[in-house]
Specification:
Strand order of the largest sheet: 5-4-1-6-11-8-12
Radius of gyration: 17 Å
Helix content: 25-40%
Number of helices: 7
Largest sheet: 7 strands, mixed
Strand content: 25-35%
């Protein structure tokens, strides 16, 4: 089984980047002259994703018009939030457009260079309900950490605080669609807090450590860093 479909959560307001990207959704923040979202799309197309479902909210017209103009041959659908649904509610709404058993979930303001082959292998071998790409980090306080056993099964999620080292949730997931749909949830909820952190002990969820490049442009310092680092990693498509 190949991973063919991806949901990209791209409805964020980018509040902390207002000085850099006034009146634009965060995923549209320009990096070396092109929207951050283009780096995510280009990389995962190269990894074999053939259909993208864009979960949009704030200023969604700016995103849809740009995508249609710049990716005329891309198979894409749009899931539009009429009011903020949280990350879980956004995934739940977009799942109505998913056809495959397993769907990749990505964040439109985070780039994580991962191997979908590694992710798929762990996910399938363990009949995982949701598999999470984990990034090793050192000396950080911006993220919580994810603890796993020796086989990679998720054992706990720890809150944000200062850590000398640990594995963080990189925001790239492979989600079993039928299992996710089976459970009743509210319309508005957090994928991280209300799904992952409340379900990992009741159903198999696995972490897949990936050491590739990772950046989250949610704060100005990292947005500035992306300008220097990302263009060489993911060239513009011709």
């Amino acid at each position: 089984m190949e991973i063919k479909e991806a949901i990209i959560l791209a409805g964020g307001l980018g509040t902390r980047l207002r000085s850099a990207i006034p009146e634009l959704p965060k995923c549209m923040a320009p990096v070396d002259g092109r929207p951050f979202l283009s780096y995510v799309v280009n990389y995962y197309r190269q990894q074999g994703i053939s259909k993208f479902i864009f979960s949009l909210g704030y200023r969604h017209e700016a995103v849809t018009s740009w995508l249609k103009e710049n990716y005329p041959d891309l198979t894409m659908e749009f899931s539009i939030e009429r009011e903020p649904l949280g990350t879980g509610g956004a995934v739940q709404l977009a799942m109505g457009k998913v056809k495959e058993q397993d769907v990749l979930i990505l964040n439109g303001d985070t780039f994580f260079e991962v191997s979908l082959e590694d992710l798929k292998k762990v996910h399938q071998q363990n009949s995982s309900a949701c598999s999470i790409c984990l990034k090793p980090m050192q000396n950080f306080d911006r993220y919580g950490i994810v603890e796993t056993d020796e086989d990679g099964r998720i054992m706990d999620f720890k809150e944000k605080q200062q850590y000398a080292e640990g594995l963080i949730n990189g925001g790239v997931y492979l989600l079993n669609s039928p299992r996710f749909r089976q459970q009743q949830r509210p319309v508005v909820f957090s994928f991280e807090k209300d799904y992952l952190e409340r379900s990992y002990y009741a159903m198999p969820m696995y972490g897949v450590v990936q050491k590739g490049y990772f950046i989250d442009i949610g704060i100005p310092e990292d947005y500035t860093r992306a300008q220097a680092e990302l263009p060489a990693l993911v060239p513009a498509e011709k």
